[in-house]
Amino acid sequence: MHAIRVEAIGDADALKWATVDAKEPGPGEARVHVRAVGVNFIDVYQRRGWYQRPLPYTPGSEGAGVVEAVGEGVTLVAPGDRVAWSGAPGSYAETLVAPAAALVKLPDGLDFELAAASMLQGMTAHYLVHDAFPLRKESTCIVHAAAGGVGLILCQMAKRIGARVIGTVSTEEKAALARAAGATEIVFYTREDFVAAARRITEGRGVDVIYDSVGLTTFLPGLDALRQRGTMVLYGQSSGQVAPIDPQVLSAKGSLFLTRPTLAHYTATRADLEARAGAVLGAIGRGEIKIRVGARYPLEQAAEAHRALEGRGTTGKVLLTVG
User: Residues 234, 242: contact at Cβ < 8 Å?
Assistant: First the structure.
């Protein structure tokens, strides 16, 4: 079969199209014919070496496809089942062998592309607004990169709750997308300081929570946009890694709360995974949450997909498609 391989840490050119041996599923595993793959910033972080993976490796952890075979003891899925996953390493491939416990069945009528575009970003948005900082109707939040994959879903979920959303974007096109998704206020971070804007919009009080996937360029300034006892939820680092922080800074700026969550800890059990995935995929299937697929690339063009994602030239989800 074909797969994308990373032999050495580096830029997007490190992603190589290769022929590799197909594997048979072992006990507790299933082999899936991959139909669509989600491209995420964590794939970039691993390729750059920010998150360590043993070399060589096949990148990717999210996708959707059809179960071809199962190993001994597998009862959760069966050959022919349409499934999706997040957290199954090696997804940039035509065929994936994954733990059966990582797979969830797709609702009838939900296609592979929407499923692959929904798992990581949809479940991330879900735990952010329901668990990392539970939004309420009276809450005001900042969503950085509001027209990105997670950002657009976050805006929609926050709107459904009734929260006030301040979305940061860079272009008019992205602003229109964020507004349509539920952003109450738009801040063009290329034109206006988002901290000043947040203080202006909240009449000096500050926001209840910031959902920050950008990291280096937004984290420290963002602390000044929070109200007393406000919460910074740092869940990404698209602009670079955040330096260590002295906890006394949180005290001095208003007894702030800081969390650095990851999806794996919010889907740690099978029950957690099924509940969160079911909530997200069900809402998408019912049309309550809209997923925007901003770009599609054939699997062999994974390097181009990474360049587009890193260059901030995409909105919504970037997918790799498999024939």
Answer: yes
Contacting residues for 39 by C-beta, under 8 A, at least 6 apart: 60, 302, 305, 306, 309, 317, 318, 319, 320
Distance CA 273, CA 281 (A): 12
Residue range of the domain that includes 6:
2-119+267-321
Q: Is 159 exposed, middle or buried (0-12, 13-18, 19+ CB in 10 A)?
A: middle
Are 193 and 271 found together in one domain?
Answer: no
Mean pLDDT per block of 10 residues along the chain (323 residues) reads 97 97 96 97 93 95 98 98 96 98 95 95 97 97 94 97 97 95 96 96 98 95 98 92 95 98 95 97 94 94 95 84 91
Both 294 and 248 in one domain: the answer is no
Identify the residue whose tokens are 């496809």: 65
Quote the number of domains for the chain.
Answer: 2
Output DSSP code: residue 197.
Answer: H
252 shares a domain with 157: yes
Q: In the Cβ-directed half-sphere of 86, how many Cα atoms lie within 13 Å?
A: 30
Q: How far is CA 244 from the centre of its chain?
A: 23
**CATH number of the domain that 68 lies in?**
3.90.180.10
Beta bridge partners of 78: none
Tell me, yes or no, whether 195 lies in a domain: yes
Residue 54 CB neighbours (<10 A): 5
Question: Does residue 287 share a domain with residue 223?
Answer: no
